[in-house]
Amino acid sequence: MKLKKPAYDCHVNVWDPEQYLPVYHEQLGRVRPGGLPPASDADTLARELAAFDRIIVFSPQYGDSIGIQGAEQTTAAAVAKYPDKFVGFAYVDPRRPDYMERLRHSIEELKFKGVKFGPIYNGVGLDDPRMQPVYAYCQANDVPLTMHMGTTFPPKTRIDFGRPLHVDPVALAYPDLKIIMAHMGHPWTAEAAVIVRKNPNVYGEITGLCYRPWIFQKCLAEIQDYSIADKVFFGTDFPFSTFDEAVDGLLACSQEREEARVPPVSAEVIDTILYNNPFEAWWHTPV
Q1: Is Lyase tagged as a keyword (predicted)?
Q2: 8-280 — its CATH code?
């Protein structure tokens, strides 16, 4: 489809083919018959997501859980190749002894504009003491922190680390830290909604929900009920969903669905989420 006005993808994974490990395809086969397109490199992203005005990209390091081991150099190369399209986020793994040194390098030398963290994938909870320097650094340097909140499929993960409830104490302790809960914490979407409403510095995004129609419809109804659409952002989670899948899935939620048994979501809420601009909200100063 053709978008009516500028739109932004706030959550895109960039990986090179050699960064996929065999366990990734083995695990994905359990939950996604046929798997996913193997390519999520910079050229593929630029082509497949051309409809977006700007795209936030990061290269998570999930080798020992999901089976993809990205690298900061992959993100840097993608941004360098498409500087007007891509905005790079660092990835932080607090298990590494040099994690803060690497984070500072990514922000200060590579000029990445935010940070991505996957507590369930790295097995580090949000209340782990190793996270405190990350929060403090991001707050002091006006760096938004996107965190994977919600479930996943790899068996070597702590699902409870993805509960949105764990975000609340962090938001209270670091009131100037911009926190983004990826995937609206599904299936705990109502929990995510009330935390977004409660905390001025917490935002949500709806990536990874389009292929779960009932949860997606319910999530959008909760966003509508709690009047937080202006704090929720759109994205694809490519390659886990394509542009068409993500947009069509969102637009479909504006129609009545008897099987869902939740209120239809207004066109205003749909448009607000689809066209929200993270570059006007996630930083204290313009990017």
Answers
A1: yes
A2: 3.20.20.140
